[in-house]
């Protein structure tokens, strides 16, 4: 499934596919725009199929209803919600327009890379472990964003190859980058969730 969202500040394209033989995906994506931010969340429920979907859905329900909370508090609520499920790995990005910073928080293996127009790349190392209701130590980080920047957030169902970086080191709409990536990607026998974004406007201009 491919979805494109053209928003004033950025365009965002989402790709999702389900592991062969399963009827539902354990990965989930949520994107929302408000007057002051765009929030992107990607989860991967542990395992696959219905139990994984249930775990992901419990987290996404919290995020849908509480995306205005500071990310640390939001993650704490997600952590409470996954208790009794298989658990999830999760990344949340909040592009805050007034501060021109992305607030970023992560637990476990959801990868994220930011590509700046000057060719610089920032790739936070995903934290170990997963969210299961037990104590976690994740704290939000602040990453600057600017016009012309690209980003990708993806579950481990995408086996990211170093050659892919070249796709995002140019100023292209998210839609075009996603189409090229989908052509190149290899099958991993897992659910896949990919979110690609391209920042169009200087949010403070
Ligand atoms: Mn996975």
TrEMBL record:
The UniProt gene name for this protein comes to rsbX
Q: Which GO terms describe its molecular function?
A: hydrolase activity
Keyword Mitochondrion in annotation: no
Protein name from the UniProt record: Phosphoserine phosphatase RsbX
Its EC top class is: hydrolase
Per the record's keyword annotation, is Calcium included, yes or no? no
Return the InterPro entries for the record: PPM-type-like_dom_sf, PPM-type_phosphatase-like_dom, Ptase_RsbX
What Gene3D superfamilies has UniProt attached to this entry? PPM-type phosphatase domain
Give the EC number(s) under which this enzyme is classified.
3.1.3.3
Q: Which parts of the sequence belong to the PPM-type phosphatase domain? A: 9-199
Keyword tags: Hydrolase
